[in-house]
Write a structure and sequence with these properties.
This protein is an alpha+beta fold. The chain is 41% helix and 11% strand. Strands 1-2-3-4 form a 4-stranded antiparallel beta sheet, with no helix packed on it. A hairpin with a 2-residue loop joins β1 and β2. The radius of gyration is 45 Å and the shape is rod-shaped.
């Protein structure tokens, strides 16, 4: 009985001093703010993290040997890269056409420079399409004028530069259209394989 009274007296004394006599566990005052902060960060991480298997648009930002390098890849087709000391851009390029067609030239008049060219092309196994390309090409260069000259030094039907190059086809290179045509076709086949190859190059850059 005496011990029971002592317990009652102690509880009364503790209560008067402001103590907790309920026997329940009390949370620390900092525990609730800490739990709220943890939940907030977990929500932000789940919201902002990319889904599995996704490919972000901005792929890499990483330190390189000479500074910070950056690269951007869009749909896997175009790629731009940059760093402090250099810059490069790559993109797909369409292959240039090896040859281009030209308007049909028809059969040339006998005895003309075009007739000489037509016969040489036939002997080389080339058809009317190649002759048409040659006609368009040399119409542009000289209008098939054996004496056509240019301030740059180009001369004759094929506009050889310099004109003296055609001496390899004959000493009469300055006046004979057959000599000029022979030299011109040799130049074309060596450099472009066919007249249509030379015509395609002329169409693209303005010269052959």
């Amino acid at each position: 009985m005496g011990s029971k009274l002592q317990v009652i007296a102690l509880r009364a004394e503790l209560k008067s001093a402001g103590g907790d006599i309920s026997g329940r566990h009390r949370r620390a005052r900092w525990s609730l703010p800490l739990f709220a902060t943890f939940v907030t960060f977990a929500f932000l991480f789940a919201t902002l993290a990319p889904p599995y298997g996704s490919s972000p648009a901005l792929a890499v930002v990483a330190p390189g040997r000479h500074g910070v390098a950056q690269s951007v890849t869009v749909a896997g087709k175009y790629s731009n890269g940059a760093s402090r000391d250099d810059f490069s851009v790559s993109e797909p390029k369409a292959a240039a056409s090896a040859s281009a067609s030209a308007p049909a030239a028809g059969v040339p008049d006998p005895g003309t420079a075009q007739a000489v060219a037509y016969e040489i092309l036939k002997s080389m196994g080339m058809g009317d399409d190649q002759y048409s390309c040659l006609v368009s090409l040399w119409d542009r260069e000289s209008h098939w004028n054996v004496y056509a000259s240019n301030p740059s030094g180009a001369y004759g039907i094929p506009q050889a530069l310099p004109g003296e190059k055609m001496a390899s086809a004959g000493a009469d290179w300055a006046t004979n259209p057959a000599t000029q045509v022979t030299w011109g076709l040799g130049y074309i086949t060596d450099r472009y394989s066919t007249p249509c190859g030379a015509w395609s190059h002329s169409e693209n850059v303005g010269w052959y």
